[in-house]
UniProtKB/TrEMBL annotation:
Belongs to the acetyltransferase family. RimI subfamily. The gene is rimI. GO terms for cellular component: ribosome. Residues 157-186 are annotated as: Disordered. InterPro entries: AcTrfase_RimI/Ard1, Acyl_CoA_acyltransferase, GNAT_dom, YpeA/RimI_acetyltransf. GO terms for molecular function: protein-N-terminal-alanine acetyltransferase activity. Residues 1-156 form the N-acetyltransferase domain. Keywords: Acyltransferase, Cytoplasm, Ribonucleoprotein, Ribosomal protein, Transferase. SUPFAM superfamilies: Acyl-CoA N-acyltransferases (Nat) (SSF55729). It comes from the Bacteria. Residues 175-186 have a biased composition (Low complexity). It is an enzyme of class 2 (transferase). This is Ribosomal protein S18-alanine N-acetyltransferase. Its EC number is 2.3.1.266.
Amino acid sequence: MRPLRSADFDRVLELERVLFGAGAWTYGMLADELAALGRWYVVAEPTGPDAVAVYGPGPKPVVGYAGLWFDGDVAQVMTIGVDPYYQRHGVGRALLEALIERARTLRAGAVLLEVRVDNGPALALYERFGFERIGLRKRYYQPEDKDAFTMRLDLAATVAPEDPGTRDQEPEPSAPDGGTPAGDAA
Ligand SMILES: CC(C)(COP(=O)(O)OP(=O)(O)OC[C@H]1O[C@@H](n2cnc3c(N)ncnc32)[C@H](O)[C@@H]1OP(=O)(O)O)[C@@H](O)C(=O)NCCC(=O)NCCS
C-alpha cells in the first residue's frame, strides 16, 4: 500500500474503465479529484516472491486503489476498486481498512459512502466492516441511471481492532500547544 502518484493515472484510469464502464472517471475528473482539498488516495501493489516471479524485481502494476475525502467532520469513501484478476484475495479489505484507519487518525466522526443498490460484492464488503444503510439516493449514478444506498460507519461507536484496550487506559495528556489532530486535510 502506498500513496497514489500522478504516474499511476494511466493504470488507475484503465482499471476505472474495466470496473465502472460508462461511469468511469476521466483523466480530468481524476486530476481534479486528487487536487481537491482533504483527499487521501492509496494504491495496492503485489508484493513478495510470487510478485517478483511474475513481474520481476522492478515496479509492480497497481492492482487496487481507493480514496477518502475528509471535510473536517466526517470522511467519505470516494472510490475503491480492485483489478478483477486480484479480486477475492483481500485487496479490497486492505484498502478499506487503510481508509478507515486514516479516518480515525483524522478524528472523523463517521465514514460515509454511496454504493449501487445492485453491487453485491461491494455491499458485502461494507457490511462486513459494520457499515449500515442509512438512505437511498434515487438515480444517483449517471449515466447508468441507478440508485445508490448511502451507508455509514459510526467511528465514535466503534473501537479500532488494533486499539482494543483504550477504555482501561489513562486518558492521553493534551498537547501543550493545544495542537490539532494529525492529518493534512483542510
Ligand atoms: C468491491 C471490491 C472492491 C472488493 O474487492 P476484493 O479485493 O475482491 O475484496 P476482498 O477480497 O478484500 O473481500 C473482502 C470481503 O468482501 C466481501 N466480498 C468481496 N467480494 C465479494 C463477492 N464477489 N461476493 C460476496 N462477497 C464479497 C466478502 O465478505 C469478503 O470477505 P471473504 O473473502 O473473507 O468472504 C471489488 O469487487 C471491486 O473492485 N468491484 C468493482 C468496483 C466497485 O464496485 N467498487 C465499489 C464502488 S462503491
